[in-house]
Amino acid sequence: MTTTVAMVLIILGCALVTWLPRIFPFMLVRNVKLPNIVLRWLAYIPVCILSALVIESLINSEGKFVTLNWVNVCAFIPTLLVAIKTKSLSITVVIGVVTMAIIRNFT
Amino acid sequence: MEIQTKVDQSIHEHTFFQGVKDCLPTLLGYISIGLAFGVIGITSNLSVLEIFLLSVLVYAGSAQFIFCGLYVAGAPVSVIIITTFIVNLRHVLMSFTVAPHLTRYSSLRNIGFGTLLTDETFGVAVTKLSKENRLDGNWMDGLNLTAYLTWIASCTIGGLVGKWLPDAQGLGLDFALVAMFVALLVLNLVDVGKNKLMHYLKLIGWMAIIMYILSYFLPGHLAVLIATVIVASIGVVTEK
């Protein structure tokens, strides 16, 4: 349970660079009224960022060619179907984890 | 009629406790990734105190994992800090999306909302937003603090007992995060109406193509950031 001054400083540096991007927009929009086109653009961010994060997990860019990460794709399909059917966050997470456990342990 | 709706809305202000409750479905993700981080931290020669400090001060899953990787590799401090910055830059977009709905609260509270924003709480918040078109401060605090405390506890416990934990991969727990993003994506598309849904599905198609191309020459976190900027712009240009 120890650390060094140097390590604490590195962690504080990392904390600062993750904190500023998170709070800067909150400060800005209090003082500047965003133009309509920016607000329309921002309306697309949730679906874009969530789909980007999902797609990132479905591709494998380790090799020479970018390929599908088949294990994740196989778990993704039932997870997506359950999400569409139930529209429930908790059920989807549980089914996703169980599906992945089955794939990893029985294939 | 409209006045009536407004009155009803102010009566049903979402409480801190409701925020805690809405956070619960995401906790499996935080707990499994947090435990995994604790284990990785220990194997990367970090002390439990350092793991605790990282989860309290940096509070960002992907950045913390990359921190371990770079630290073990003996990367210079500048590289560690710059990489952490880039990995978390997508939070700018997330904060910009959420912030306009919370300007009625004080600066201090807004700093609080921003400080505790993560991929997951962002996902839950925008889902709430797509359903009800507004966000309440107390609800945000309930959501954020529940996630934050769970994350700190999970990382620290992972560091303390990591050696005795079963392999999280074998249990499929690492997939909790992806499953959560899938569910949040679907929940964000549920209420948009037929025409808009087609538009969004086309954008997701674009996203797949652009992510694929970018992945050839960019690390995943940068591909996510840049693809999001490009596809949101396509969204604005192609909307009717």
Automatic annotation (TrEMBL), chain A:
Residue intervals passing through the bilayer: 6-29, 41-59, 65-84, 89-106
Stored Pfam families: AzlD (PF05437)
Claim: Transmembrane helix is one of the keywords in the record: yes
Record key words, sorted: Membrane, Transmembrane, Transmembrane helix
Recorded superkingdom: Bacteria
InterPro entries associated with the record: Brnchd-chn_aa_trnsp_AzlD
Protein name: AzlD domain-containing protein
Organism this protein belongs to: Lysinibacillus composti
